[in-house]
């Protein structure tokens, strides 16, 4: 029973990674940018919840407000930080450095406004208890179900709708896409908005699960979500999900083995292994560099 | 007299100090098939890039009907009626054949995001209509059997046809074809000839095509503009252009007549 609860725990935290990894993967898929500031969006989402709940807003408003605010934040970040670089075909490294800069900016902005200490989040969702091996796993199950639903929705959006087709077309050849009447700028903005909204959903689950937030929380979380996206095959939606769940499981496995201090090391060892043996990731397509 | 559909006036662009296109003026009447020919590096593709807004001209203007296009972005010009194909095929290779066609119909769909995710009635109705139209286009181009294959798996000739189908999906008024016969054998070229004429009649578009293959151009175009070193050096009906000494000189070189296969 102990193992079952640990597996569920792993899947539960993996689900939060998954929601962040989906955004990483999506943005990378469309503009080939590793948006290192993406992890910090989950922090922005967390603080939005903190502020809204602090103003005695009802729970639904805190959740919706956080998702909406993050979507807007994602759009603003794209407009302010990346837009000109993307439109002028700046080298990838310039984009990457900018993304790291945005990440540092967000972390410090949060410290400036809210202080460096962690903030408590009141209990958000009261769910009927589901006990497995004496442990209440209803929150964990909530995380898993929400993440799976989000992934399925995203998959539908990308594969069957017009904006999804526009995203895939932009991803493959942005130049040809504009010549076919697609406004690639708004497609890119949309991608950032959806990715950030998903991170906010991650923030909701994170706040509900751990009941505290801090300015630097996006750093390691974002990094692990990035590892998950690479592990599963960056650019692939089911890949990001799979990678994140495996990562969560690997973490809880290191806890089971009594090696919780090695938890982060296990994650990055997995990254190194996958890069050595299957650089495109588990579900990634063979990378073909454009000439 | 057929009205003028697309008109270019004094179009010029300089890259650094180099003039790639210099004072080019031409026009296409409604339903006309017009050829833009010239030796390698004459500036033909640059003109396409100017028309579609990939480059902004240094001087001059472009009118679609009576409207200047200069202040419109590339994607808007496509929506207004300028669609093109590419010399080096630029399909969305990882999308299915039918999705390639549908991407160009993006602006013709209006259902909301919510409807798209939850598959509301608006979504289903519009997607059904679009699918129907996309299949029709594929059928016209003889590609319907490949609808659900990846574009990358089509043979070369079919990929060229798919590019035309995709451009038509944008409901253009003027179809810009960039070397449509490149890499085709004589039989395929003959087929293409018939296809382009059929498209012009069926979809009521004007066609501007860039081409190297002189015979193809002479067979299909009603009017021809000849470009050399970024300037129009001759224009007229095929027979006139064919016998214009300036054109012969541009193609064969001033005194190097041994390069006859050029």
Concise account of the structure shown:
With 291 residues, chain A is mostly helical. Chain A has eleven helices and four strands. In chain B, strands 6-7-8-3-9-10 form a six-stranded mixed β-sheet, sandwiched between helices.
Polypeptide structure, described:
The complex is a heterodimer of chains A (291) and B (262). Chain A is mainly α and 291 residues long. Chain A is globular, with a radius of gyration of 19 Å. Chain A is 75% helix and 3% strand. Chain B has 262 residues and is α/β, with parallel strands linked by helices. Chain B has two domains: 1-81 and 172-262, P-loop containing nucleotide triphosphate hydrolases (Rossmann fold); 94-170, no CATH class. Chain B has a six-stranded mixed sheet, sandwiched between helices. Chain B has a four-stranded antiparallel sheet with strand order 2-1-4-5, with helices on one face. In chain B, a hairpin with a 2-residue loop joins strand 9 (223-228) and strand 10 (231-236). The A-B interface holds A 153, 156-157, 160-166, 168-169, 172-173, 175-184, 285 and B 52, 54, 73-75, 78-79, 83-84, 86, 90-95, 99, 102-104, 106-107, 109, 111, 113, 116-117, 119, 123, 127, 166-167, 170.
- In spatial order, strands of the major sheet of chain A run 1-4
Low-confidence stretches of chain B: 256-262
Q: Quickly count the domains of chain B.
A: 2
The CATH topology of chain A is ABC transporter involved in vitamin B12 uptake, BtuC
- How far the N terminus sits from the C terminus of chain B, by CA atoms, comes to 37 Å
Average pLDDT taken over every residue of chain B: 88
Distance between the termini of chain A: 54 Å
Q: How many strands, which pairing sense, and closed or not: the largest β-sheet of chain A? A: 2 strands, antiparallel
Oligomer: heterodimer
Number of domain units of chain A = 1
CATH class category label of the largest domain in chain B: Alpha Beta
Please, how many helices of chain A?
11
Cα-atom radius of gyration of chain B: 19 Å
Task: Summarize the largest interface: chains and residue counts.
Answer: A-B, 25 and 33 residues
